[in-house]
Design goal:
metal-binding, Ureohydrolase, two-stranded antiparallel ribbon, 12 strands, hydrolase, binds manganese (II) ion, alpha/beta
C-alpha cells in the first residue's frame, strides 16, 4: 500500500443517525460547471480547468453513480460566461480582483439550481471548474438546509477576502463570502445576492498545507477547526476525521456539505490540478475521509473541484479522473477496499503468537 502514514481505524460513532438509506437520498442531482474564471490564469499550463466536468463524464461518472443505485437527474453543464478578457477586473484595496462579475454570476445561477435540488430532497453533486463555484453550492444548499455544516477538504484555506488576497483569484476566497464574522470587505460586483450563511463552528478543514498568514489569522480569529497534513501525520486520519465530524456535526443529525478540492490529494494521486502542493493526502486517506462521511448517513451535497484534464500526460489525467471518481463513489456509499481489507495472516516463522516477535 502506497501509504506513508498508518491509518488509525475508528468506527463511526454509534449515536449517528443513519439517514443514508432513506429513499429520498437515492436521488442525485448532477451539475457540471465548466468554469475557470476563479483561477483566471493566463498561463498556458493552467488553461483547461473548464474541461473537468466533460472529462469526468467521459471517464464514466454517470454510469458509476447509477451503479450505486442512484437515480441521476443530470442537469448537464451550467452555461457560463467567457472569462478570457480582462474587462471585468475589479480593483479593491490595491488588489485586482479577477473576473468578479463572472464568478459571482456563475455562483448565483448555481446556488439557485442547488437550492432547487436540495428542496426536492436530492443529494447534489457539483463538478468543477474552480473552487469559486462553491460560493454558489454552499449558499444554495445552506439556504434550504439551514442547519447544514461544511467539510472543506483542501490544500488551501480559500478564505482570503477580496481585501486580503494577494493574487486576486476568487477561487482562493470562497469561504470569505460564506462564513459569518470574516473581516468586512466591500461586496464586489456579481456578489450582491450573497451573504454569509454559516457560522465558523459549522465549518472544518482537512488536508491543509499551503496556508497564507493572513488566512491563518482570519481562521484563528474565528476559531474554525482546521486540520493540517501535520495533524494527520501526528494522530492519523482516523482521529482527524472523527474530530472534524464531532465539531461540525456533534449529534450526527446535521446535513453535511463536502467541498472536495482534489488538490488536497498528493500530486502523485491527483497530478492534473492547477495548484498542486506536495505532501498531500494519500488516496487511502482521501478515501477514508469519504467513507467516514458516508457512514454518518448525513451527506447532502458534494463539490468536486479543480480537476484540470489539460495538465499532465494522458496517464496522469486518467489517474486523476479515476481517483476523483473513486472519492465520489465512496462518498455515495460504495464500499472501499479499506472496509474489507483483511488482516495479513500471521507468519509463524517470524512471530511466536504467544510471546511476540522472535526474530
Ligand atoms: Mn480550494
Amino acid at each position: 500500500m502506497n501509504c506513508p502514514r498508518l491509518l488509525h481505524w475508528i468506527k463511526a460513532p454509534t449515536h449517528v443517525v443513519r439517514l443514508y438509506h432513506s429513499r429520498k437520498h437515492k436521488e442525485l442531482f448532477l451539475i457540471g460547471v465548466p468554469f475557470a474564471g476563479g483561477q483566471a490564469s493566463t498561463e498556458q499550463p493552467r488553461k483547461g480547468l473548464e474541461k473537468g466536468p466533460a472529462s469526468l463524464r467521459q471517464h464514466g461518472l454517470v454510469n458509476n453513480i447509477t451503479k450505486l443505485g442512484f437515480t441521476v437527474s443530470d442537469f448537464g453543464e451550467l452555461e457560463v460566461p467567457l472569462t478570457d478578457t480582462e474587462n471585468h477586473n475589479y480593483i479593491t484595496s490595491g488588489t485586482t480582483l479577477k473576473n468578479s462579475l463572472e464568478c459571482g454570476t456563475v455562483a448565483h445561477k448555481l446556488s439557485e439550481e442547488v437550492a432547487k435540488a436540495t428542496k426536492q430532497g436530492k443529494i447534489s453533486l457539483t463538478i468543477g471548474g474552480d473552487h469559486s463555484i462553491a460560493v454558489g453550492t454552499v449558499y444554495g444548499h445552506a439556504t434550504v438546509r439551514k442547519n447544514s455544516c461544511l467539510l472543506w477538504i483542501d490544500a488551501h484555506m480559500d478564505i482570503n477576502t477580496p481585501s486580503t488576497s494577494l493574487s486576486g483569484n476568487i477561487h482562493g476566497m470562497p469561504l470569505s463570502f460564506l462564513i459569518k464574522g470574516v473581516p468586512e470587505f466591500a461586496q464586489p460586483p456579481g456578489y450582491e445576492w450573497c451573504s454569509p450563511c454559516l457560522s465558523p463552528k459549522d465549518v472544518a478543514y482537512i488536508g491543509l498545507r499551503d496556508i497564507e498568514p493572513q488566512e491563518r489569522e482570519i481562521c484563528d480569529e474565528l476559531g474554525i477547526a482546521a486540520y493540517t497534513i501535520d495533524d494527520i501525520d501526528k494522530v492519523g486520519i482516523g482521529e482527524v476525521i472523527q474530530k472534524a465530524l464531532e465539531t461540525i456535526n456533534p449529534r450526527g443529525d446535521r446535513p453535511i456539505h463536502v467541498s472536495y478540492d482534489i488538490d488536497s490529494l498528493d500530486p502523485k494521486e491527483a497530478p492534473s490540478t492547477g495548484t498542486p502542493v506536495k505532501g498531500g493526502l494519500t488516496l487511502d486517506e482521501g478515501i477514508y475521509i469519504a467513507q467516514m462521511v458516508a457512514e454518518t448517513g448525513c451527506l447532502s451535497a458534494i463539490d468536486m473541484v479543480e480537476f484540470n484534464p489539460a495538465i499532465g500526460s494522458e496517464e496522469e489525467v486518467t489517474r486523476t479522473a479515476m481517483n476523483t471518481m473513486e472519492l465520489i463513489n465512496i462518498l455515495l456509499g460504495k464500499k472501499s477496499h479499506l472496509t474489507e481489507a483483511p488482516l495479513p495472516p500471521v507468519d509463524e516463522n517470524k512471530v511466536d503468537v504467544n510471546n511476540g516477535v522472535v526474530n
